[in-house]
Amino acid sequence: xxxxxxxxxxxSLTEVGTVEMQCVAIDDDxxxxxxxxxxxAEADAPASEAAAGAHPRLAQAVALIDEVxxxxxxxxxxxxxxxxxxxxxxxxxxxxxxxxxxLRALFDALLERARRRRRSAEHERVWxxxxxxxxxxxxxxxxxxxxxxxxxxxxxxxxxxxxxGNNWSEWWTLWRRCAGGLDEARQLxxxxxxxxxxxxxxxxxxxxxxxxxxxxxxxxxxAALERVPAMHRIEVGRWLLxxxxxxxxxxxxxxxxxxVGARESLYGSAHTVVPxxxxxxxxxxxxxxxxxxxxxxxxAAAQLARLTGDRARDLAPELRDEVARRLAAxxxxxxxxxxxxxVVSLDxxxxxxSFGEALPPGLRLL
Length: 366
Hints:
There is one protein chain. By secondary structure, the protein is mainly alpha-helical. The protein has 18 helices and three strands. Helix 12 packs antiparallel against helix 13 (about 255-260). The protein is globular and about 65 Å long. The two termini are about 20 Å apart.
């Protein structure tokens, strides 16, 4: 029987000078689990992991990937390349049900064939889509640090088919999906590149620049970079707020503002959360909206006003009460109202809404 157990990490120094770590159940300190780390050489790490409990049809799935990205892959038309994901689902089942071990094994297969993503615009687009999906959220499995290191080499290479707007969309989506595995320095590098593209987005849109067709994807990625220092997140939030004052801005940008100003990070540190006075300023702009007409604004307000129990992050009680009343009047999901009034964890639906898609089955980020 599977169940979730809340634990704390306990470290101790052994007599021989090594560090021993255990997961200890919060409710019962007699329940302990030794925490082990994979320290095998990097070169053979993915293979050794895949061998332990591989999906019974993994070999079939890798063969399908080989048909498109393998060294001896036959010539395929664009439609056949696009159908790779559907063919994988016919072999492995719905992709929403692919567990962490299967996802990472598929990513390892894609990573091994990464050079062949450049065969055509369709190859590149499909590779980016599948690789990002299989490595999301960039952490949570053994060897993910190693995988992120290998993937990061592609960031400097950039896109091959830069005139394809859909490829830009998949490019930014890949890095948003894997953002949880990027350290501060890498996230700052991503943000710097994003800023260059977003700085003059209106003029570039008028010129028909393909990258600007992925404007919304760039906004989502900027909002997902939780490890950059708070000062940079404040800059992003203020830029978003300025954009939201313009007619024609996608209402989903309110979701991005809520993510940037959220009181509780999804994977980042509390030290990078924007100050409560800044969040309160942004919340006033959200409160001025008609939430029935701008649906993402209600969830943004819930994120900005969420109660954490940390005085350094929480907004004033009267602001949180106003948000809770507005949510109740809107008949918003009860979980939104509860997160403003009580210290709670996100449920699956709200976690999915916060990330922009579901996490791999069974993964919980605490």
